[in-house]
Known about the structure:
A: 5-stranded mixed β-barrel, B: alpha+beta, disordered C terminus
Amino acid sequence: MKRKHKRLTFVFIAMLLLGAATVLMLSAFEENIVFFYSPTDIKEKKLADGKRIRLGGLVEEGSVKKAEGAVVNFRVTDLTTALPVTYKGILPDLFREGQGVITEGKLQGGVFKADEVLAKHDETYMPPEIAEALKKSGQWQGKEK
Amino acid sequence: MTAEIGHFALILALLVAVMQATVPLIGAQTGRQAWMAMARPAAVTQFGLLAISFGCLTQLYITSDFSVLNVVMNSHTDKPLLYKVAGVWGNHEGSLLLWVLILSLFGSAVAVFGANLPPGLRARALSVQAMIAVGFYLFMLLTSNPFERVFPVPINGRDLNPLLQDPGLAIHPPMLYLGYVGFSMAFSFAIAALIEGRVDAAWARWVRPWTLAAWCFLTGGIGLGSWWAYYELGWGGWWFWDPVENASFMPWLAGTALLHSSTVVEKRDTLKGWTILLAIIAFSMSLLGTFLVRSGVLTSVHAFATDPARGVFILGLLIVVIGGSLALFAWRGPALVSTGLFKPVSREGALLFNNLVLSTAAAAVLLGTLYPLLLDAIGGGKVSVGPPFFNTVFIPLMIPMIIAMAIGPILSWKRADLMAAINKLWLAFLAALVAMAAAWVLRSEGPLLGIVGIGLAAWLGVATLIELTGRIRMFSAPFGESLRRLRGMPRAAWGMTLGHLGLAIAIAGMTGAGAWKVESIQSMKPGESVNVAGYDFTFVGVKSGQGPNYSLVEASFRITQGGKPVVALNAEKRVYNVSKRPTSEAGIHTMFTGDLYAVIGDKDDSGGYVTRLYFNPLVVWMWAGVLMMMFGGTLSLTDRRHRVGAPKKHQGVAQAAGA
Lengths: 145, 659
């Protein structure tokens, strides 16, 4: 085998790998990308039930209710619209009323069933998505970026 | 006063670095010996200045000097001493100071131990090292000065984020940084080699141990971070494909590829351009990692509050370093001529295949991590790319690599007989089938991928042992002869064996914990019992207590299996006095077959407590595997060929290394 052929073999393998990776990625992107919405977005776009999304905003003051069997109900608000959320499990340590939160799950008859509530290491941190959602709804009180 | 000394030392270090970045490089280009000689003392001076600066900040933390903003924000007089010291790098400014301290440590190591390096290469590499340093010094002095004073002086500090007050996390950042910054060595030498237009075995022999050391630290740092997430975050998971985790994983993938390709350069004088490119990529990924963690551009479960001005500066630095080095590579790369020829089926071929897969995997992780940013930049909406994406892309890419990993070490250099190699591995194939059958019988309800994972682990593990027995002629020579060969085996060979074996064990652990985790979430009242994977968890009750700087609620569980007591577990919920922030401490009992894991949540309205109970099969195998990989790497570092000065054809100054 000549030097040129040898190199071609590896170029071929590299193309094959990249091709496989691209196919894998495209199909994975199709199924596994999760879009972020604020409560107002969900109301305006009349999102269908059953699609996996992320919902972010502030935990509405006074809305956290602990129900039977480790279920927690609360409302996520962008200060114009609020959406009820239900979650089963232990809330992250930094989950608090009035603070930013991101939840992941599905809409079910006007209630957001979350199976994941994201924790932050740092309580002064505001996820960029939430900051933007608050800016859009005109309720942003932090400093302008 | 201490703060001013620290600040001043940092400014002096910047000036020294500017000199070191220019004078030796010009000297090397124009052949002025005296100019080139300036690099070594400058590198040592930089390290001295940084040590002073870092020492000052540590002193400020230990004495709780609250006239310094950084100390106020991250410390408190009641904090245990370990966390006062760890607080130095538990924040943005301090961690950057640690970053540059380590960078200067590596730079001075080249100066001190590099007596037998060609003077031109040494001068150029140290100049490149100093250029990186200049960027980071400017970044610190302009946007993130750790020595900034505050007035009026507060009475006490705001305390370190409680999640970070943990022994594992106290040493996690230094280890990770030793890994990240360690790749700067390979990078500097790669750039120096591009400027010189020459890469040879001596170059590879010098770069390889540093890459290996960086790789060991990075492996340990990632392992520690993952372990910390496992026991401290209380989610029962150990890897979340979070941007911050990916940020450390991408340089690891690229660094692993570099580790393997530099062997080829050293032994076979080929794949030179590729190795140089990998060195650039590995360090670029490290810089990108620093950027992702410190800029806050991505929503991460680990995200820390950040300042956009810093992000812009690091992004600029990133563009200059990556863009500049790739442009240099495009210009000078073709000048690097490889002499060693090889056939596709050969040890070189297998290593190149491993490199291609690792690079593809790193690219996939990179794309997945940055995709939300890219999509948002073109107005495509806010998205998140989570574990399902990475699992679907990453795992299938790894399968052919693990299969090839078993075969590669058995192939000979230059050209090899693939069928003969595969014939040698019949036992590994059999072991894989047996392991898969066993997994099928024990856990038929789990995902198919779990069974494949166990099969791959067995295949790789047994194949690695077959390679070892072949090397020492275990069954073809008298036993005494084999024993003698075993003892005489070079440590680098041991490193390979242990590294691959460690990965096989870690794969088994990851598969077990990933595929067959059993989780149960419920509200429990004292006295109630829940069965998780055959273990009965009985919630005994809670009691309150006090820690050094927190109050706690401790829940105890009694665990029995078929009526027989197994263990008692305590899970804590802590509330830190200063910040009023809560953290969870999981109760974990580690067994060979898996971990029992309990977390306690809040009291609910019915008087019960929310509990989260897990059985995580084989999870300890993962940490054991990671430790074995690190140990293998360390052993390989002590190989004779790294200690004895590399003989050089060109200079004729083959003297033993100064140390």
